[in-house]
Structures are given as C-alpha cells and as structure tokens.
Amino acid sequence: MNRLDQLATLLRFPSISAQKEHAQDVSDCADWLVDKLSGMGLEAAAHKTRLHPIVMARSPREEGKPTVLIYGHYDVQPVDPVELWESDPFEPEVRDGKIYARGATDNKGQLFAHILGVEELLRQNGGHLPVNVIFLLEGEEEVGSGSLSQFIKDHRDELACDVIVVSDTGMAAPDTPTFSYGLRGLAGAEIIVKGPSADLHSGVFGGAVANPIAALAEIITSFHDEDGRVAVRGFYDGVEPIATWERSMWATVPGMSNEELAKLTGVETVVTESGFTGAECIFARPTLEINGIGGGYQGEGSKTIIPSHAFAKISCRLVPGQQPEKIETLLEEHVKSHVPRGVTVEFKRGHGGNAYVCDPNSEFGLAAQQALEEAFGRKPVLVREGGSIPIIEEMKRVLGADALMLGMCLPDARIHSPNENFPVDLFSKGIDMSQILLRRLGQIKH
Amino acid sequence: MNRLDQLATLLRFPSISAQKEHAQDVSDCADWLVDKLSGMGLEAAAHKTRLHPIVMARSPREEGKPTVLIYGHYDVQPVDPVELWESDPFEPEVRDGKIYARGATDNKGQLFAHILGVEELLRQNGGHLPVNVIFLLEGEEEVGSGSLSQFIKDHRDELACDVIVVSDTGMAAPDTPTFSYGLRGLAGAEIIVKGPSADLHSGVFGGAVANPIAALAEIITSFHDEDGRVAVRGFYDGVEPIATWERSMWATVPGMSNEELAKLTGVETVVTESGFTGAECIFARPTLEINGIGGGYQGEGSKTIIPSHAFAKISCRLVPGQQPEKIETLLEEHVKSHVPRGVTVEFKRGHGGNAYVCDPNSEFGLAAQQALEEAFGRKPVLVREGGSIPIIEEMKRVLGADALMLGMCLPDARIHSPNENFPVDLFSKGIDMSQILLRRLGQIKH
User: Fold this and answer.
1) What percent of chain B has pLDDT over 70?
2) Tens of pLDDT along A271-285?
3) Measured between CB atoms, does B214 come within 8 Å of chain A?
4) Sequence-separated contacts (24+) of A237-242 with Cβ below 8 Å
5) Which end of chain B is more exposed for a tag (fewer CB within 10 A), N or C?
6) Interface list for B 127-146 with A (CB within 8 A)
C-alpha cells in the first residue's frame, strides 16, 4: 500500500476520544498503529488505561546513540456539525492536493509522517536507525491527556530520552517551516453569580433586586484595565520581558502582522495589550478570556425576568513565570473582592497547565532548525505557540528532556472544524523532514 | 352546578395561547364563556381574530346608568415544567382551601368572580343591573394582546364606557385589599455584539482579538451608575417625583418593606436606586434590566474559545412621563456610543407599552376603595403596579375611560409557575366585591 493509502486507512478510524460510543474505534486505531509499528521492526504495544490505550513503541536499543521520543496523538475531535463537511469525515478524499478527513492534520497526518520517516530510515539502513526511537502515541489528547500524565511517571525509565519531537503545532504559512520553542500554559475557572432564589418577574420586583447578569458584567469588566492589561493584582508577577531578538523575529513571521491577523479572524482591528503587537501578545503575553456566558432568557423574543443566576467560563493563557494554581488563587481573590451588593458569587477552579519554553539554539534546537531548512528549502521562523500542550511541560519535568516542536498545522487546516485537511505535499515533506531530523540528531555527541 | 364546580369547568380548558396545538382549546374556552354569559341573559359572542377569539358580552342597555367595561383574559401560560405540578394543571384540585390549576388566579379565577357577581346581581334584581355591563375577555393576554389592540379601535363605539374594571393585578398580602391606580410601561431591546467571523481558538488568537463577551459586559456595566441610577442620558426626562402621600402609603403596604422583599425574593439585601425604598422603586421608578445573556461555550466543562458573538436581552420598566419609543432611541444612542474597540454592535428594538396612572380618588376610584373595604372588611392599600398591562393604557387612549384595578393575585399564587392556585375564600370574596362595586358605581351620577 502506498503512503497516502496507508494514511487514509489510519484516518478511517473514527477515533473520537470524547464520545463513549467510539471507544472501540479508538482502541481499534491503537491496535492498527501497534501492527504498523511492529511490522516495521519496532517493539510495540497498546497499553490499557482507564480510558483509551497509549501506544508505545521502541527501536532495538543501540548504545552510543541518542534517544528521541516522538510524541503524537491518534485520537480526534468530534465531527459536528457534520452537515458542513463536503465529504465524509472518516472517508478520506483528496481534492486540490489536500486530503480531507477528521484528524488529517490534527494529529494523524503529522504523526504518521514521523512513522513513515522512521520506516524509510530503517529500510535504507538495514533495520538500523541513526538514533534510538521511542514512539509515544496517546488516545486522549483531545480530552485532556488524563491518562498520559500518570503513564509518564509510571514508565519514566522506559521513556528515558535525550530529546522529544512533536509535530502538533502550527506552521505560520504554507512553505514557511516553523520551529516552536514555547507554549502558553492554561488556568481556568467558572464564576456563578447568584441573586434571587428563583427567576423573578421584572415588573413585580424590578428596581428592588440586584440583577445577577449585571453583577456578572461588572465583575467581567473589572478584569481588564483601559490599556487591555489584566487588572488582577499580581497577575504579571514573574512574567519575563520578550527578548529583543524575539520581537525582531516575530515582526517578520508570515501571516502574523496585525493587519493579517485582523483579516484572518474577520475583525476590523486587532485589539492587544497596550505596547505589544498581536503576534507578541499571542506568543508571549498572558491573557484572560471569557469563553462563555449564560443567564436568564436566551430564547426567541423576550421574557421579562430578573434571572436567579448567571455564569461565565473564563480561562487564562499563561507564560513562563506564571503558575496555574497561583493564577487561579489570584483570580478568586479578585472576584471575591469585586462582588457587587445583593448577590453572592461561587468561584469554581478549573484545570490548568504550565507554560513551556526551551532554548531554540541548543544543539538539539539547531539540529531541528537545520532539518526544517533542508526539508523545506527555507530558513524556519522561530515562534512560541499561543496554544497549550500541558503534557509537553510535564514530560520536561518528569523525563528531563526538551521538546522540539516542528508543527505542520497550516492556518487553513480547519482542525477542530468541518473539512479538516492536510496537503499531500506537506505530508511528503514531513516524511523527509523526519528522516533528516533523526539523522542530524544522530550526529550530536551523546 | 355550584360556583366552584363552574370555575373548575372553566379551568379544565387548556387554553394556552402560546402553543399552536392548543388553538382549539382556546377557542372551545371562548365558546364556553359565550354560552355562560348568554345563559345569564347577556348578548354575547366570540369574535374571530387572526389568532384567538375575543369574547364580548353586554347587558341590555338601560339609559341613565353608567357603563362599566369588565376586562379579563381567559388564555393561560404554558405549564412547563409540568413535572413540578403536584396535580394535573388542567384537572383542578382543592387542597388546603385553595384551588390548584393553571389559570386559577391568572386570570380565570378573577374574571369568573366578576361573571358570577354579575349573574348574582341579575338574579337578585329580576334581570336588571345597577350599571350597564360590557365584558371584554381576550385570549391573547399571555402573548401580548396582539389582536385586542386593533379590536378596540374597530369597536370603539360598542365598547364606549365610563369606567373599566380589571382584576388582573396583585394583592399585597392575604386579607389586604389592594387598589392599583398605576402600571409601569415597557421598552425592550436586544444587543448583539459581534467580533471575529467565527469562534476562535483562545490559544491561537488570544491576546490579539477583542472578546465579544467582555465587550458586552462593558456595555452592560455602562448602563448604571454607582448609585443604581440608569446612566443612559435623558432616561429620567419627564419622570415625575413620587408624591408625599404615596411615599407614606407605600411605607405601610404589607409585604413591601425592604426586609420583606428581601425575604420573599431570597436575597440578602434589596438593592435599589439610591434614595428610594424597594416599594417606591417597584411602584414608581423606571428600571433597566438584563433579562438574558448568552455567548460562547455554555456546556459542561470548558472550551477555550473567543466567541464570535454574544447577546443580551434588555427591558425597561417605564413610568408616566416616559415613552417607549423615545427610551429605545436613547438606549440605542447609549449603546452605539459605548461600543468597545474591535467589535461591532447590532441593536434590535423590542416591543413597548406606555405606563399608566389614574387618580385613585376620583368618584370611580373612591367607589372602588369602598367596595374593597366592604368586601374585605379592611381599608384597601393604594399602590401602583410594578408590572405592565399595556392594553389598559391603550383602552384609556381609545375609549377615554380609566381602569379600576382590583387585583386578587396573592404573592404565593404562583402565576406563570407550577402549582398556580387561588384561595376558594378569595374567590367568594371576589364575587361579593364585584356586586358591591357595581352597585356603588351605579350610584354615581351619570
């Protein structure tokens, strides 16, 4: 079977980790990966967890070679709204040079490029590799990597490695190889504002009772100052300034100018923290976002009530120097000290993760930059990722290895949305890049 | 059939005006009322409209007697959540001296007390009444009285009257006869804040794009100042001060102290416009309430997005001197001048109605006060209603007659909620009160 047909086979598994009815599909997908990796000569197994299996595979250990752990995930996001897909999300179709399917970019296409890269190296070198390889492929990334965290601690010796390779981040633009050396962290919370014991008639009681929605709006408004800075006391403690070389580099990243960001997102103008560009804010500044809000009557027409309660879901993206637990404590203190009269507030902490950053110019980092340049014929841009992959920071803490993030997710890959796709050409380049990278990493003195 | 059995028959019609599947039930209920009123010797008919019938009935006209129009509505609210009812909402059941059914208080119980009051007078006086009576009973009150507005204009001559009687307002407390001489008006709007063209990943874009929920919260927060006053320019123009006698009277209304209001609504403290009691704010001060809000992710757990849009439904209760159209214009101007950067705002006007107030000490008003005192054995309290019945103000404009609002809706009648009820004893007193009132009105020189 050719490479693309194999990828299509992998994409046909509806391995949606969030939906119970797909548990068997997730498991079948893990088994298929084990078969594939075993067939290449690796020692592979699917490890049971409380939810979905973790696939671990390793090449026969050769002394004197560095060990590279390649991380990826074979689970995918749900497909709703399925009616917006132009072809079946689990029946891959190539159109205009792109393969369309759920998981095409996130993350099956990218992880499979690494698998085929390793297979090609094994074929070329009589079953040997320039490095020792460990594949660590989880089935719960889209639902929070709940099992992997413990698995890494339980298998820290087997997973011991010199460096981690991940292709699950963004590529600034087509033909722009992108090396990510940082990730933002995450903190979250839910705020519930409670007023009267039941919804009240706004005529019978309006004027005498605090409105929970208005109270919640006041709290939300207190979160930012007029300069777009988060107004929570202590929020920026420990945040390091952006380096001069980073500001220079980021000013040149394709697609990341303020004008391009505005066009891409469909807004008239970007709105940033005062003194920073959009790219700087996304890559290296913390945020406090309101992800959702609800309260009172939301249906057709009107219903004249004072609602009994209202809620907002908030989350913060964090940068190095901030700790999720501390940020959640600061948020709670802020909210508790901004409760308007006549209502009470419940503050529910969410789940968090630390930010991550590594030196892009370490020996490993330079090897990654060179591999990208060789595979794509252009110097890579160096960015930090605005998103969060908390498990990367956990692996750093437990395994002591940094992660080289060589993402191939294009801005229009439509991950988590209908019509997810991955360019066939990029898939090929990814296979090449994986081989070049492993060869270069193999040359580093161990 | 005794009085209560007749009321039970009326309550058995599931005349839910908002639900298409009950259109025939609404119509059947109108026919039953026509039969009842015809049987009493009135000339009665159900008039077709674009939605639900309007029942009009009149006593044979006798010269020299004042004409009293008794208004009521025979349609009812939906019954959801039906599982919270202790007995079938359309199979009336008497428990602890109260009859439980949808519509028991609002408004079938109250309007039927007037019908039986008229029947009793006719019986006692050989088919004559102390006044000429017109019954005007609509089937669309719970859905906005859409047909009645035009009907009144089309039948202004037939509906010509000296005074209107309505029992569809509140009774401050059990055994506290309550005469309402005012109603608040209503203005409404929906605000839609639009940001990015689709929900965005809060990691990939967070920091560079204005958050529509935060923007909406800012707009909402701008609606009030720190004294609880509406901060919309011109909002209070034309609002008249509360009279000294009103402040004195309202300070004594049972159940309306700040402490009682807090207890009744389940809040720690009432929150009012600075300088006014809760009762004063409810009876005679305008408000701006947020009735509902929605945006972004509202489900279980979290979803880290910047939502594409957010909306809020707002409504104002108005007092004499304010016009709904003008208030909506002021609101729109306020919103348009408070749009945060990076978002756009759509402002949708709602439906409004004028406030209403009449002189409680007019000849008719004094007759009403006396009737209440005689029927209940206590002097009535004089209040304005915090709620709105826009059709009352329309009838005043078209027919030139004031409305005597003699409400029997108790604070725990649970109108619009599960387990709506009406005390059997209050039903009897209502029948008495109707007779006394019509006799007293008949004594007024015409």
Assistant:
1) 100
2) 999 999 999 999 999
3) yes
4) A237/A321, A237/A322, A238/A321, A238/A322, A239/A285, A239/A286, A239/A319, A239/A320, A239/A321, A239/A322, A240/A319, A240/A320, A240/A321, A242/A276, A242/A280, A242/A283, A242/A284, A242/A285
5) N
6) none
